[in-house]
């Protein structure tokens, strides 16, 4: 499109005129020949005038997008505070003025995403928000959530890794990733791991308050060899082991479950903080740094937390938050 200047006598300096392009009946707005007077009084024909006319429309679109983003910040802030909060607490949490937060809350109330308690005046997540949450929870699958984490661990550290879930016979491997040169081990998808002597089993033991899991641990302890027993606390082997797992939020083993193999494991939690899986990385003991604070130990915990986050888990807020 070209720009042409013609005399504009008798025309307002800032006026824009639209004339239909000959031979284009019913043409859309962008098919019109657009003429607008520029600052010099000349007529500009083309893109500049089109942009001048479209500018308010674009500003309106951006404002709507920004409003939607702010509304989502308010809604997520309410969820982050446990799903119920006062206007003051919510405004402080999202770092917006109470008046502004109140305006957005009213819109969310109208849509059923938020409701207000008549007695306390606190706001809480409404029915529509709960329906959205239920739909999301139905899709939450710890195995699917952990798959990207397993791939990243395998590629970053060239190690074998897997996710296990608690089955009726014990911790069971349900997804397995191997590097190009895998470590030779006799476990695969469907293998059941020891509760006491595998890293994955120890995480389940430490973070699940399940009588069945405790019974499995007791049974393994009674059948353990003297060499295995020597690795745990003599006075309270199971209790001390559980406490150490809770403190570290993970577990590591060296040559306990499989000779020559070391492993590090970390928990995967779901939306309500329940343990639903354990991610484990393992390798040959000589070249595998099986410490929770080692680079691979930190990576395993980080990837387990990423999988937990994908399932809707959020770490509890501090008491003074």
Automatic annotation (TrEMBL):
Sequence ranges assigned to domain HTH iclR-type in this UniProt record: 65-127
Start and end residues of each IclR-ED domain: 128-313
GO-annotated molecular function: DNA binding; DNA-binding transcription factor activity
Keyword DNA-binding: yes
Keyword DNA-binding: yes
Biological process annotations from GO: negative regulation of DNA-templated transcription
Keywords for this protein: DNA-binding, Transcription, Transcription regulation
Pfam families reported in the protein's UniProt record: HTH_IclR, IclR_C
Residue span of region Disordered: 1-26
SUPFAM superfamilies, per database record: GAF domain-like, Winged helix' DNA-binding domain
PROSITE patterns assigned to the protein according to its UniProt record, in alphabetical order: HTH_ICLR, ICLR_ED
Official protein name in the record: IclR family transcriptional regulator
